[in-house]
Amino acid sequence: MEILHMSEKELDRWRIIENVTAKKLTQKQAAAILNISDRQIRNLLKNFNKEGKKGVISKRRNAPSNNKFDEQFKKKVLSILVEKYSGYGPTLSAEKLRENHSIYLSRETIRNWMIEKGIWQIKFKRDKKIHQRRERRSCFGELIQGDGSHHLWIEISGIECCLTYFIDDATSRITSMHLAEEETLQAYFIVLKQHLNRYGRFRSLYVDRSAVTKTRSGDGDTQFERVLKDLGIEIIRAYSPQAKGRIERSNRTLQDRLVKFFKEKKVLTILEANQILEDFRAIYNEKFSVTPKSPVDLHRPLTPGYDVEVELCRIEKRKLTKDLCFSFNNIVYKVKSPLIHRLGNREIEISLLNDGTIKVRKNKQILEVEIDRTTRKSMEEKKILQKNKEWLEEKQVHQISKNHPWKKHVGNTLPSELSLSPQPIAFNKDNSNIGKKAMGPDSSKARGRESCSGS
User: Fold this and answer.
1) Which residue of 56, 95, 127, 447 is most buried, as measured by CB atoms within 10 A?
2) For residue 62, pLDDT beyond 60
């Protein structure tokens, strides 16, 4: 007996066709019930009378789709993905096939083919804690999010470094980015400088509670906070990664697409990567940026006279001595200024520039300084003295080898005359010590000779 597998839809059709055959329903009534045409009812009746219940079952079951791609074409696409785009995700692979090979396929088709081939694994998502999505700000420049992402950005040379970048909350546009070995103050200054030069001063900055943006102990501002206060930028600190989810989500995109971009350009060093970051930023913004709700740009121009190179660096304060000198990095400097009589016992600011030089200011005025060699030795003299000191220490500390003759008496190979057993001591008549004498068969003769010599 043949077993037929029918769906619910096919069972309903079979029951209606039986009623039509039994003259309980007309063809028009059956067509209205099944929501099909009269012609389809006649075809079903013809197949039912010829094959029975099997005639109601669809002939397309287990048959390949009419829209199915050719197997040769499928093998060609998969060979391109394996050879040229190994490690690429389905979405990025579909884009590269469309841009570089004029092959137009949906990302879901690519995903299914890659899973079937074994070059992509299905990702099962865990149930995550729900965080209510915050509405975007309305204007460009109203809120900027900043973060540093540690990742293996340069795969060819295996360099793991940190990408520091800013992204606008209203448009999801990356405004500035920079690669460095770590998430440092210098990297944040470079990214901030790029943004200021391109767009001007934004309203607020949303960052995490890192050491760059928040002091770990005590009160006071960090160097980065000082700069933001001078620029009139509000700083907002996030207490969780989900709070600034827009830049956290872009991290995942960058860790996929930027790594592939560096790989295509054959980037080997961080310096080479920073040189082409602007090209990638333009590509990213063209694809992922959105139009803000309001066309108003809330960026403000920099204050006239604001020197970005001097302000965006590490600044320390010193107090001048009575002879107008100060110490910085173990070097004593002397102020040479026309207002020299007004600077005694006054506080000054020292800016350490990116090239290693310093600029000294008092009330935003640059002061001319020079190294005071009367009180401090030059760096060359310090190096020579340090080398001489190390050489003397090496000469003084000399380790004696274990096989040195001085150390041969240590152990079990002592000569008999150096035995450590107790020896008798001889005395004169006046009880004066004449030294140790070995006790042996000739010891009496030796004592006799000593007594004769004493008499």
Assistant:
1) 56
2) yes
Both tokens of 331, joined, read 């070097």
Q: Please enumerate in sequence order all residues whose Cβ is within 8 A of that of 61, keeping only pairs 6 or more positions apart, or say none.
A: none
Partners of 163 in the β-ladder: 149, 179
What is the phi/psi pair of residue 92, to 5°? -70, -35
Say what the pLDDT of residue 358 is: 86
Given 3-state DSSP classes, what are the helix, strand and coil percentages for the chain, each rounded to the nearest 5?
Answer: 40, 20, 40
Distance of alpha carbon 308 from alpha carbon 318, whole angstroms: 22
Backbone dihedral angles phi then psi of residue 445, each to the nearest 5 degrees: -65, -40
Q: If 0-12 CB within 10 Å is exposed, 13-18 middle and 19+ buried, where does residue 361 land?
A: middle
Kindly give the interhelix angle for 245-264 and 90-100, rounded to the nearest 10 degrees: 50
**φ, ψ of residue 78 in degrees (nearest 5):** -65, -35
Which pair of tokens denotes residue 446? 């030796």
Pairing of strands 204-207, 234-237: parallel
Give SS3 for 264: helix
The per-residue pLDDT for 395 is 61
pLDDT score of 127: 64
pLDDT of residue 447: 46
Tell me if 138 sits within 8 A of 158, measured CB to CB.
Answer: no
- Model pTM score: 0.61
Ramachandran area for residue 293 (φ above 0: left; ψ -120 to 50: alpha; else beta): alpha
Say if residues 338 and 360 touch (Cβ distance below 8 Å): no
Tell the residue number behind the tokens 């600077």, with chain if given.
Answer: 343
Q: How many helices (H) and strands (E) does the chain have?
A: 14, 13
Distance CA 25, CA 22 (A): 8
Q: Among 36-40, 279-283, 408-412, which is the least confidently predicted range?
A: 408-412
DSSP, residue by residue, 149-198 = EEEEEETTTTEEEEEEEEEETTT--EEEEEEESS--HHHHHHHHHHHHHH
Residue 53 clears pLDDT 50, i.e. is over it: yes
pLDDT at residue 452 greater than cutoff 50: no
Tokens at 162, concatenated: 């940190």
Q: Please report, as a single letter, which amino acid is at residue 265.
A: K
Backbone angles phi, psi at 351, to 5 degrees: -100, 120
Average pLDDT over residues 88-92: 90
Parallel/antiparallel/unpaired status of strands 425-427 and 365-371: unpaired
Residue whose token pair is 């000739």: 442
Angstrom distances, CA of residue 133 to CA of 83, 146, 147: 40, 18, 19
